[in-house]
Automatic annotation (TrEMBL):
Residues annotated as domain HTH iclR-type: 18-80
Protein name: Transcriptional regulator, IclR family
IclR-ED domain residues: 81-265
InterPro entries linked to this entry: GAF-like_dom_sf, HTH_MetabolicPath_Reg, Tscrpt_reg_IclR_C, Tscrpt_reg_IclR_N, WH-like_DNA-bd_sf, WH_DNA-bd_sf
Pfam families (UniProt xref): HTH_IclR, IclR_C
Keyword line: DNA-binding, Plasmid, Transcription, Transcription regulation
GO biological process: negative regulation of DNA-templated transcription
PANTHER family: HELIX-TURN-HELIX TRANSCRIPTIONAL REGULATOR, ICLR FAMILY, HTH-TYPE TRANSCRIPTIONAL REGULATOR RV1719
GO-annotated molecular function: DNA binding; DNA-binding transcription factor activity
Organism listed in the record: Acidiphilium cryptum (strain JF-5)
């Protein structure tokens, strides 16, 4: 989500920033799973631009086939042209392609939603999401491409535990969202949690993302032992936790092991 993203990238010395392009990218990033359609006023505020600049940039993006505009409602939305560009992304594709059938199998076995996560720039990026045909409860708040800090959710917290110490410190310097009263946002507590998660080999997160829901996350390592990402399942707490222990952990770990065995090399964003 746009409000959660903090970009650390800075122009290289001697290479000027193209402001028009930077502003256009800010507009594209303003769209999210929770706000897929927005008004000119909403986009102007989200991208921190004046209305005239926003209108001109949107018109350019419409001509380029990246944004659609509904004349009746006045709402703007990303177009299928963005998907055409996304189809050319190679980084992380192998992990996603290998993991997809395993995520589908687990989703049907558990009647839960499954996720594949990778680390990028201090954030967790959802690269695959599979919904069971008969889910106990859906988890629509994260779709493919959505980003979230590493402090909440089983899959993202597994990433926090297994990235390098330098990457972890960079992630902990980013805004850490308290989604519920039990969400951890203190860096020292999160460092301790990362050590615990890495030692245990999994994470059971309860009520820290959405009250009443829990999730289990496990890491995926390639054949060389390099960390590639994490997979997770989420549902009602009563369906995830049994007498204080995570259900379906063995199935999730087996899937992570099989995914890792099929990876030729680690693919990280």
């Amino acid at each position: 989500m746009a409000e959660d993203i903090e970009r650390d990238l800075k122009p290289k010395p001697g290479v000027p920033l193209v402001r028009a392009l930077d502003r256009g990218i800010a507009l594209l990033r303003a769209f999210s799973l929770t706000k897929p359609r927005q008004t000119l006023t909403e986009l102007t505020k989200a991208a921190e631009l004046d209305k005239g600049t926003t209108r001109r940039l949107l018109q350019t993006l419409i001509i380029a086939g990246l944004v659609d505009h509904d004349e009746r409602s006045g709402l703007y939305a990303l177009s299928v042209g963005v998907l055409e560009i996304a189809s050319a992304v190679h980084t992380g594709r192998e992990l996603r392609e290998v993991a997809a059938p395993y995520l589908s199998d687990i989703a049907e076995l558990c009647h839960m939603t499954t996720f594949l996560w990778v680390h990028h720039d201090g954030m967790a990026v959802c690269t695959e999401r599979v919904r069971s045909a008969q889910p106990s409860i859906d988890a629509p708040w994260f779709g493919v491409g959505a980003r979230t800090p590493l402090n909440c959710g089983a899959g993202p917290r597994v990433l926090l535990a297994n990235i390098t110490p330098e990457e972890r410190e960079s992630a902990l310097r980013k805004p850490l969202v308290a989604r519920t009263p039990v969400s951890q946002t203190d860096p020292d507590e999160l460092r301790q949690a990362a050590e615990r998660i890495r030692a245990a080999g999994y994470e059971l997160a309860v009520d820290d993302f959405v009250p009443g829901l829990a999730a289990i996350g496990v890491p995926v390592f390639d054949r060389s032992g390099a960390f590639a990402g994490s997979i997770s399942i989420t549902s009602l707490t009563s369906q995830i936790v049994d007498n204080g222990k995570p259900r379906f952990l063995a199935e999730l770990q087996k899937a992570a092991l099989e995914i890792g065995r099929k990876l030729i090399e680690p693919h990280r964003l």
